[in-house]
Amino acid sequence: MQLFDLDRFQEIWQTITRNKARSLLTGFGVFWGIFMLVIMMGAGHGLERGMMKGIDGFATNSCFMGSSITSLPYKGFQKGRSWNIHNRDLDILSKSIPEIECLSPILWGHRSTNNVVYKENSGSYNIRGLHPNYVKIEQQRMMYGRFINDIDIVQARKVCLIGTTVYEELFPTKGNPLGQYIRVNGIYYQVIGVSSGVAQISISGRSEESVIIPFTTMQQVNNQGDIIHMLAASALPNIPVKEVQEKMETVLKSHNIISPDDKQAIWSFNLEEQFNMFKYLFLGISIVMWIVGSGTLIAGIVGVSNILTVTIKERTKEIGIRRALGAKPRTIMGQIIWEGLVLTSISGLSGLCFGVLCLNLANTYWLENAEDVFLSDPMISFGAAIASLIILMGFGLIAGSLPARRALRIKAIEAIREE
Fold first, then answer.
1. What pLDDT does 316 receive?
2. Which of 89-93, 309-313, 337-341 shows the lowest mean pLDDT across its residues?
3. Which of 385, 375, 334 is nearest to 355 (CA)?
4. What is the 3 state secondary structure string of 151-186?
5. 95 in the same domain as 228
6. Same structural domain for residues 125 and 40?
7. What local confidence, expressed as pLDDT, does residue 156 receive?
8. Main-chain phi, psi angles of 143, to 5 degrees
9. Does the residue 235 lie in any domain?
10. Structural domain for 165, as ranges
């Protein structure tokens, strides 16, 4: 005898629809559980994608550091000494630490009211002195022209790269700005390019709102010698950034007469630690979502199990007659299990489809056109949907098997006598 066929499905469906109100309430519990699980997973993945999208284009295997006040006396120098990173440190670091993939100095210029002027247009913007290598750490999306090159550095050319926001405000007619001269803190520079940062994060100012000039040019025009305000470095693939960061600090302390034990003389941070922190955060959020969603789903499954138990009690005489007529235990058990599976499957699939539909509508009509919303494509993966269905079917089997075992304990003669 087959465990399940079309006739049996019709019988099962009639049993489920016999008590419509009870089945609807129980099915809604399963529907709501899988719906909430899908919504929470989609929101969590959307938040993660939004975060990853925000740092896309920024080297996560990078670190940044600068000089500070010493906190320990060393070799005749008192604590509280100010010191600076110099151009010579660039060569020393590059030769001493082969794990460095890219090393770039960063300088900050003076920002004041209307410090950047083109004809009658002006504005207040960040001024940065950079090296061509910096694009390997923070990628730039070029709108016009080019980025700073090595010749600009060697010859200390008075050229600049302006951000897209600077371009829109200084050149409202949207003409080609290449070759034009703008005044930055009282000094004229020729525009060689217009760019914006690929990533939504930035160090020392967003690229869209910055004017970038060669760092050697900034050192000359500001009469600051060869002082460097900050260093940016990225590590070679498969090399922990923490290792490069520690080696850079050691080399800088050694060549600038700073105690190796001084923890305050150099400030530094690396993006890899921040990136890993976010990964663990999203992992924790994902686990919590599965726990909460599964708990809601289990509550619905318990309702399915209860309704099947009540149904078996109401059908005690029917089950006894079928047992007396020779129905095998597996046939009785199979029917009850299939009742649980059908009820949970229909409710669960409805909740899954409705949850995916809601996520798709939210993404299409809200998130794609909204600004400053830190969510991106809040959809669940195919693997997560399959996992949800497997969990749902597993719970459905459990919901049906427990009442089915109770049905098998009913003796045929006692069931027939029951009124």
1. 62
2. 309-313
3. 385
4. HHHHHCCCEEEEEHHHHHHHCCCCCCCCCCEEEECC
5. yes
6. no
7. 92
8. -100, -40
9. yes
10. 62-272
Where on the phi/psi map is residue 86: left (φ > 0), alpha (ψ -120 to 50), or beta?
beta
Q: Report yes or no: 182 and 191 within 8 Å, Cβ to Cβ.
A: yes
pLDDT in tens, 169-212: 999 888 889 999 999 999 999 999 999 877 666 676 788 889 99
Q: What percent of the chain has pLDDT over 70?
A: 73
In a domain, 1, yes or no: no
Contact 160, 192 (CB under 8 A): yes
Q: Answer yes or no: do 215 and 289 share one domain.
A: no
pLDDT at 84: 93
Mean pLDDT of 316-331: 65
> Above 50 in pLDDT, residue 4?
no
At 2 the pLDDT is 45
- Quote the longest CA-to-CA distance of the chain: 107
* Domains contained in the chain, number: 2
Q: How confident is the model at residue 273 (pLDDT cuts 50, 70, 90)?
A: confident
| Interior angle at CA 57, CA 211 and CA 288, nearest 5 | 130
Q: Extract the tokens encoding 301.
A: 């499954």
Q: Taking the CB of residue 137, how many other CB atoms lie within 10 A of it?
A: 25
Residues 348 and 392 grouped into a single domain: yes
Q: Which residues contact 124 (CB under 8 A, 6 or more apart)?
A: 111, 112, 113, 114, 115, 116
- Segment 290-297 mean pLDDT: 73
- For residue 271, pLDDT over 50 is answered with yes
- Looking at 242, 272, 302, the residue that finishes a domain is 272
Q: Is the pLDDT of residue 415 over 60?
A: no
On whether the CB atoms of residues 208 and 155 are closer than 8 A, the answer is no
Number of other residues whose CB lies within 10 A of the CB of residue 254: 12
Residue carrying structure tokens 């019709």: 10
Same domain, 260 and 353: no
Per the prediction, the chain carries an average pLDDT of 80
